[in-house]
Amino acid sequence: MPLAPSTLPAVIEHADKSAMAEALSGPIRDALTAAIARRGRAVFAVSGGSTPEALYKRLAMVDLDWAKVSVVLVDERWVEPGEAGSNESFLRATLMTGKAAAAQLVGLKASGDTPIDGLSAVTERLAAIGFPPDVVILGMGEDGHTASWFPRADGLDVALAEGGGPVAAIRAKQTAVTGALTDRITLTRSALAGAGLSLLLLAGDGKKAALDAALADGPVADMPVRALLRSPDDRPEIHWTR
């Protein structure tokens, strides 16, 4: 069901991606620093895409005990690092530079022909760093997907199940949003439950229109970002820029 008008989340607007990066780098640094102080480590879950690029480059220069931070991908196309579409390659070129190069990057691509083949190995990697994440950076497509929770995708029910494993294999229905690389591996709704600072970053009028649609009535399977937007406990902060 849609959210009541009184409970609609605030959308924090920024002048541009640079301004958004400046506004968010401090709170992210503080959340990671607090996690390190509490238990000696921090987990930072991050997404690919052009929207957070300026933020990642800014964070790479931030003073932080990066050696105690595990950076984990929210989702990944089933391609090797260095191949077109790899989120891991994107992160190595943006976030994992400068001071942040000292952090541990936990990729989601494993051996095997399909994401299903790699689930066991990736689950072991994630168990070694611990969940939930202390900070999560999410994006959203104009189709209403976040992470690799694509509308009506094969594996979506597993990805959104309560109390499930930390990762799921997805085969999306090919669209202009997915492109040709429809086999994905993704953190699940269960993996993100109870996360610390959770941020949903959007850019452009198309994403704003998609957000408005996701906040309206309709099945979660049609716009899976609704699984988070309708959550009383795990709804992310929403930040938007043109």
UniProtKB/TrEMBL annotation:
Gene3D superfamilies the UniProt entry points to: 3.40.50.1360
Record pathway: Carbohydrate degradation; pentose phosphate pathway; D-ribulose 5-phosphate from D-glucose 6-phosphate (oxidative stage): step 2/3
Key words of the record: Hydrolase
Hydrolase among keywords: yes
Catalytic activity: 6-phospho-D-glucono-1,5-lactone + H2O = 6-phospho-D-gluconate + H(+)
GO terms (BP aspect): carbohydrate metabolic process; pentose-phosphate shunt
Keyword Hydrolase: yes
Top-level taxon in the UniProt lineage: Bacteria
Limits of the Glucosamine/galactosamine-6-phosphate isomerase domain: 16-229
PANTHER family noted in UniProt: 6-PHOSPHOGLUCONOLACTONASE
Protein task: Hydrolysis of 6-phosphogluconolactone to 6-phosphogluconate.
Family: Belongs to the glucosamine/galactosamine-6-phosphate isomerase family. 6-phosphogluconolactonase subfamily.
Name of this chain's protein: 6-phosphogluconolactonase
Species for this entry: Maricaulis maris
Taxonomic path: Bacteria, Pseudomonadati, Pseudomonadota, Alphaproteobacteria, Maricaulales
Gene: pgl
